[in-house]
Amino acid sequence: MLTSYAAHFDTPAGYLDFARFGPPSRDAVAATTQAMADSARADHTTVDELMRAEAAARDSAARLAGSDGQHTVLLPNASTGLFHAALGIREGVVLAPRTDFPANHYPWRRTADLGRAVPRWLDPAPGGGVTADLVRAALTDDVVAVSVSAVDFRTGFRADLAALREAIGPHRLLIVDAIQAFGVAEMAWEAADVLVAGGQKWLRAGWTGFATLSDRALEALEPVLTGWTGVEDVGLFDGTEHPPAPDARRWSITHLSPVTAAAFAAALDLVERHTVAAIEAAIATRIAELTEVVHRLGGRVLSPTDPAQRAGILSFTMPGHDPSLVAKALHAEGVTLTVRNDSLRLSPHASTPPEASEQVAAALSSLQSRRT
Fold it and tell me: In which region does residue 195 sit, left (phi positive, over 0), alpha (psi from -120 to 50) or beta (all else)?
């Protein structure tokens, strides 16, 4: 456990579901409360003061992504960024994994319906993810982009973004959904032309998000969804259509809630202060402990076993036991996790204490005693 980081949270020890939702810190809650209190005492300075949180959050996200404010834009969620990217491609084929989370499917299904970009689905090996070899084998002249998750939501498989960049070459776009990795895994974010992430999971910021765009993406993607805050001379209300902003602001439709932005800024500041490397190392320690527990008590691990190929997700089954019954045993020991029809998913954070592994061990041991 990263003690200095953990001190900012009130999350129960057995909460192991950060891949679904990350309970925010007291810092983020306080920032939200303060922004609401300030808005309740409004005067002529209030709106301008509240809006400063948007720039602070944007700049923090940009630094963590290895980018800058001109190439970064705040968004209400990751899905908005994926739709921006998808609708920005006029034509051509986009490679995307069939096994990805549905949020990564629908933008491409909708562009196909509109006669724009057409998806070609990739089929990773069971338990694996999108690799450079898989992409390379699917490349044809009409492929204009590849869309992947930095970390697979089912198994925690970590994509090699640098290898994917090399495989597709300099003229195709690499679109990356980083929601299961950003802030907790050091990855080659600079390899992505479009990087989107949401704040409600590992960033522990509540429902918000951002995107960074490379110069290649700014040049290649049509700004279909540009709103009034995404244009030049945004403060000039002259009744005419203004051209899209030359930088990532062109993906802005309207202002993000300044209350949400304040929480996002606080959450990102916490990551920057404690560093992604330290957070990632703490999570890796918990994953190793939980993996040992699952193996020792008869479970079958579905996630990659090589630490270099996985992030903070541990998916597993207990042979001979229905996942819903395993979940009941875990719930009884105070463990929160994701339960699917065919598997279970544990996802600890840097604030997760060693006792969490003991709680999981107690639950899985109770299953063995029931069989005997």
Answer: beta
Distances (CA, A) of 234 to 242, 246, 258: 8, 12, 18
Q: How far apart are CA 332 and CA 342, in angstroms?
A: 20
**CA angle 102–106–109, rounded 5-degree value:** 135
Rounded Cα gap, residues 115 and 229, in angstroms: 28
Q: What is the pLDDT along the chain (372 residues), one digit of tens a residue?
A: 789 999 999 999 999 999 999 999 999 999 999 999 999 999 999 899 999 999 999 999 999 999 999 999 999 999 999 999 999 999 999 999 999 999 999 999 999 999 999 999 999 988 778 999 999 999 999 999 999 999 999 999 999 999 999 999 999 999 999 999 999 999 999 999 999 999 999 999 999 999 999 999 999 999 999 999 999 999 999 999 999 999 999 999 999 999 999 999 999 999 999 999 999 999 999 999 999 999 999 999 999 988 889 999 999 999 999 999 999 999 999 999 999 999 999 999 999 999 999 999 999 999 876 654
Q: How far apart are CA 82 and CA 77, in angstroms?
A: 9
And the tokens for 3? 């003690």
| Cα angle 281, 284, 286; round to 5 | 115
Output b/e per residue, 28-47; b: 16+ Cβ within 10 A. Answer: beebbeebeebeeeeeeeee
The two structure tokens encoding residue 273: 């202060």
Q: CB neighbours of 184 closer than 8 A, spacing ≥ 6?
A: 202, 276, 279, 280, 283, 311, 312, 349, 350
Rg (CA), the chain: 21
Contacts of 258 (CB under 8 A, 6+ apart): 35, 39, 47, 50, 51, 53, 54
Contact partners, residue 282, CB within 8 Å, separation at least 6 = 1, 2, 5, 349, 350, 352
Q: Which of 177, 163, 188, 154 is nearest to 75 (CA)?
A: 177
Alpha-helical (H) ranges within the chain are 3-6, 26-40, 46-64, 78-87, 106-113, 132-138, 161-168, 215-220, 258-274, 276-296, 323-332, 355-371
Q: How far apart are CA 149 and CA 266, in angstroms?
A: 25
**Cβ proximity of 226 and 242 under 8 Å:** no
